[in-house]
């Protein structure tokens, strides 16, 4: 009977020595070093206690673990997406900076050209009025 209770404890804490660690009667029997029918026929009280302890247990850690793993995987995907967006924005920022620089250069050249044209026009006399007809 001590072997059965010790096996129960090992299975419930997740530290099996002689079985696969599943919370079943077969695993309990293997962990205790007994045949399954000893638990199902002779030690029915211990079998019922084991089932009650398994049922009263918090949700299975595997389910929580899967949920945590799924959450971690989603966070990794989100992080990868954010990194990709950041890299894309950096590339766009560099492109915009180049565009602004080119536009500033073009604007400076246009101002120079406009200043040169004004200087050339200032040196010329007034444009004659061609709408008046010359009378001879």
Task: Describe what is shown at a glance.
The chain is mainly α and 136 residues long. Helix content is 76%, strand content 0%.
Task: Write the topology of this structure.
Elements: H1 2-13, H2 25-32, H3 36-42, H4 44-56, H5 61-123
Helix pairs in contact: 1-2, 1-4, 2-3
Extended strand count: 0
Provide the gyration radius in Å: 44 Å
Low-confidence segments, given as residue ranges, are none
Give the amount of beta strand, in percent: under 5%
Largest sheet: none
Distance between the termini: 141 Å
- Oligomeric state of shown chains: single chain
Give helix and strand order, one letter per element, not per position.
HHHHH
The coarse overall form would be rod-shaped
Helix tally equals 5
Task: Give the key terms.
mainly alpha, rod-shaped, 136 residues, 76% helix, 5 helices
Q: In words, what does this structure look like?
A:
The chain has 136 residues and is mainly alpha-helical. Among the domains are: 2-56; 91-121. Helix content is 76%, strand content 0%. The chain contains 5 helices and no strands. It has helices at 2-13, 25-32, 36-42, 44-56, 61-123. The protein is rod-shaped. The mean pLDDT is 85.
């Amino acid at each position: 009977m001590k072997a059965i209770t010790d096996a129960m404890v090992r299975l419930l804490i997740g530290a099996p020595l002689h079985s696969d660690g599943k919370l079943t009667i077969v695993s309990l029997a293997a962990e205790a070093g007994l045949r399954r029918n000893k638990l199902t026929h002779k030690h029915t009280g211990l079998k019922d206690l084991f089932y009650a302890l398994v049922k009263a247990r918090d949700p299975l850690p595997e389910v929580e673990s899967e949920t945590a793993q799924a959450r971690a995987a989603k966070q990794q995907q989100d992080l990868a997406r954010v990194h990709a967006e950041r890299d894309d924005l950096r590339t766009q920022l560099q492109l915009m900076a180049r565009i602004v620089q080119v536009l500033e250069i073009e604007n400076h050249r246009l101002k120079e050209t406009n200043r040169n044209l004004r200087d050339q026009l200032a040196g010329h006399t007034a444009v004659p009025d061609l709408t008046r007809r010359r009378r001879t």
